[in-house]
Amino acid sequence: MSNVAIVTDSTASIPEPMLKELNIHVVAYYIHRGKEVLRDLVTIQRDDFLRWLPTATFLPTTASPGPGDYMDMYKSLIARGIQSILSIHMTSKGSGAYQAATIAQSMLMEENPDARIEVVDTQNVSLCQGWMAIEAARAALAGLSLDDVLASVKKMLPVTRMIQTADTLKYLYMGGRIGMAKRLAGTLLNIKPLIGMKDGVIIALGQARSRVQAYTAMSDMVVEVVGKGKAKVAYVHAGALEEARKIQQLVDGRVEVVESFFAELSPALAVHTGPGTAGLCFYPVEE
């Protein structure tokens, strides 16, 4: 067992086999669907949620875990003899997870002065957050210290990128998460918006007339960043695996991808993107 535990949230959307293999500990987000209070990937799963979402007459709301949720996770790890914890969260500008984890960190370290908890604001979302948790877990399993694991994650912060598209920005717009990309909200239905993240908020990266053009633009952006170097890529979707495969074919033909996998967004993210979303989260790998 590693001496450093890696904690992240369900919104990282890491495939379950990788969570188990890398011993990544996940705290679930909340989804409020009318009077129902659901736990992301605990009491609601991807398939059921995506089948229901297009029929919804109202948009569910999401909420980050509270300090108590993180306290429970940290305490359970400390009870197992782990004194070093790295907690990795989505952008603090789009969620209260980072703040809640920081409160739990302060409270728990007062109770357990021998414990050390570091909380990271990834300034990103989805599998960008997920990649950081994955690489942190690998470093921890390799025996690196908490300082070294944290340093490896901090190197990823400025270079890990998300690009995605959907048939509509309706869900982001209704959920109030559209940020600087709001100028695309009123575009025609046949326009496929490309969105990404910058400084922790969603931004417009451009638009295309079709999904094929959107996917080509994505691959262009990856090539622009990676060049003749190497990259690790997570192909991300919400009920649109075949669309994600199309993106993979374009990217793999133009960039040396040293590791890739497919990942489906958790319900707590899919509520904001809507079904049919497809994209990628990637970062260049140092030689």
Could you walk me through the main structural features you see in this protein, from its secondary elements to its overall organization?
The protein is of the alpha/beta class. The chain has two domains: 4-29 and 64-156, Dihydroxyacetone kinase, domain 1 (Rossmann fold), CATH 3.40.50; 161-285, Hypothetical Protein Tm841, Chain: A,domain 3, CATH 3.30.1180. It has helices at residues 16-22, 46-52, 67-79, 97-111, 126-141, 146-156, 170-174, 211-226, 241-252, 267-273; strands spanning 4-9, 24-27, 30-33, 36-39, 61-63, 84-89, 116-121, 161-165, 192-198, 201-208, 230-237, 256-264, 278-285. Helix 3 (67-79) packs across helix 4.
Keywords:
single chain; 287 residues; alpha/beta; Hypothetical Protein Tm841, Chain: A,domain 3; 6-stranded mixed β-sheet; 4-stranded parallel β-sheet; 10 helices; globular
Helix content: 25-40%
Low-confidence stretches: none
Assembly level: single chain
- Element-by-element helix/strand order: EHEEEHEHEHEHHEHEEHEHEHE
- Identify the overall geometry: globular
Largest sheet: number of strands, sense, barrel closure: 6 strands, mixed
Per CATH, what is the topology of the largest domain?
Hypothetical Protein Tm841, Chain: A,domain 3
- The radius of gyration is 18 Å
What's the mean pLDDT score?
Answer: 91
- Please provide the count of β strands: 13
Supply the CATH class of the largest domain: Alpha Beta
| Strand line-up of the largest beta sheet | 10-9-8-13-11-12
CATH architecture classification name of the largest domain: 2-Layer Sandwich
Distance between the termini: 29 Å
Helical stretch tally: 10
